[in-house]
Write a structure and sequence with these properties.
single chain; about 10% strand; HATPase_C_sf; Heat Shock Protein 90; about 70% helix; 5-stranded mixed sheet; ATP-binding; alpha+beta
Length: about 425
């Protein structure tokens, strides 16, 4: 519940406890005004009773009842103004007329009703004042002229009716403006709260996506290199005593693989450090925007420095050196693509070869790369595993195919994997491309 809603509920509770008054001081003010008005009308009622030839008690009681109706001004402002107009011929209710007109003008009553009642009050006061001034001049010993009586009647009637009506209209307009501004503030507060929640959700999604991407990159870099290192180490152990020259060659390959893995890991960690330093340098930028910009910059920097299709022959040769029989078939005219497309295509082939090392030792592999008009396709297909080949005993976390699918679908491509009819396994991907510089 908002603060404004709590205040409204509290005001409603007070209003129910004090009839139609929203606050205690409003009730006290209206009761006090009603008492003063009743006293005024009672005094004026005595003079009215004497002029009309009525008992004084009747005029006094009539004045008390009529003046006390001012207490109802907030609930029934129209009734209060009508009562003040009705007792105007008796020269009673000056305070009631002024306060009633102000309350009526400041209320939510339609403007045409306010104008009608204000005009009726003006005419009533004008007629009574005209008659009263004329009587006073008739009883006096001087003649001020024909213009004096109507001019005084107009001045007095306008002075008693115009100021309260104008002031009431101003207060009513100001009150409605404040309520409108308060509602707008509450609406803006709710919108800001929703925006903050959405920003937090987007930031959480960005963090999750970034963690997934980092895990995928670490898997691609480490799994392939370490798998080759394990295969070469197994071969080194097998031929260490029989063929020292081949053992030395395998040992050199293991060292090269380790150095390449460390180099790629250092490059990745360098990109991550660069992405982390950007929000600190631009602390004035909103956190969600900085997170998205840093993630995009990190991915772009990694894609620029990452592997590309030009190194595909080198990747295949590394698997051949590990004892795998690999055939690379390239169709179409080779050309440059965007860095994210080149890196994704390279990683798909890399992960496909890694899976063959893990799950199909000794199997023959065919790597196909097809350059087409608006897409590039790659496929890694292996035959059944050679039962005579020694299993390297490589562990599998089951994340390779998931990572490849995430990479390909993120670029709007299609990824398919599954066993073949010959007992092997096939991994295929198609990526939409736009020629790069």
């Amino acid at each position: 519940m908002t603060t404004t809603g709590a205040h409204q509920d509290a005001a409603g509770a007070v209003a129910r406890g004090w009839w139609w008054w929203g606050r205690r001081r409003s009730a006290v003010l209206d009761v006090a005004l009603g008492g003063v008005s009743a006293l005024e009308c009672a005094v004026e009622g005595v003079g009215f009773a004497e002029r009309a030839g009525l008992p004084v008690a009747v005029g006094l009681l009539f004045g008390l009842v009529a003046g006390a109706t001012l207490v109802l001004r907030r609930r029934w402002p129209i009734a209060v103004v009508l009562v003040s107009i009705a007792i105007t011929p008796a020269e009673m209710g000056i305070l009631m007329g002024i306060v009633g007109l102000y309350t009526l003008a400041a209320s939510e009553v339609p403007r045409r009703i306010i104008g009608l009642l204000a005009g009726m009050s003006l005419v009533a006061v004008l007629i009574v004042t005209f008659v009263r001034v004329r009587q006073d001049i008739a009883s006096a010993d001087f003649d001020p002229g024909p213009w004096y009586v109507p001019l005084m009647a107009v001045f007095i009637s306008l002075g008693m009716n115009a100021p309260p009506v104008l002031f009431g209209l101003y207060i009513g307009a100001r009150r409605r403006l404040m309520e409108s501004l308060r509602e707008r503030a509450d609406s803006l507060e709710q919108e800001l709260s929703l925006l903050a929640d959405r920003a937090e959700q987007r930031a959480q999604m960005a963090r999750t996506e970034e963690r997934t991407r980092i895990a995928r990159e670490m898997h691609d870099v480490v799994a392939h290199r370490v798998s080759l290192m394990v295969v070469h180490a197994a071969a080194l152990q097998a031929v260490a005593l029989k063929d020292p020259q081949k053992a030395a060659k395998n040992a050199a390959l293991v060292g090269d693989m380790g150095r390449q893995a460390l180099t790629e890991l250092r490059e990745m960690l360098g990109v991550l450090r660069t992405g982390e330093s950007q929000p600190v340098a631009r602390a004035s930028v909103p956190l969600a925007a900085v997170g998205r910009a840093a993630a995009a910059a990190a991915f772009a920097a990694e894609a620029e420095d990452g592997p590309c299709l030009d190194r595909l022959e080198e990747l295949v040769e590394q698997s051949r050196q590990a004892g795998m029989v690999v055939e690379l078939r390239v169709t179409g005219e080779a050309r440059a693509y965007g860095p994210e497309v080149e890196q994704t295509a390279y990683r798909v082939v890399q992960e496909g070869l890694t899976n063959v090392h893990k799950h199909a030792a000794g199997a023959k592999v065919v790597v196909r790369l097809a350059h087409r008009g608006d897409e590039v396709a790659m496929q890694v297909e292996n035959g059944p595993s050679d039962g005579a080949a020694a299993d390297a005993g490589l562990p599998s976390g089951g994340n390779g195919l998931v990572g490849m699918r995430e990479r390909v679908t993120a670029l709007g491509g299609v990824f398919v994997s599954g066993p073949t009819d010959e007992g092997g396994f096939r991994v295929s991907a198609v990526l939409p491309v736009s020629p790069g510089a």
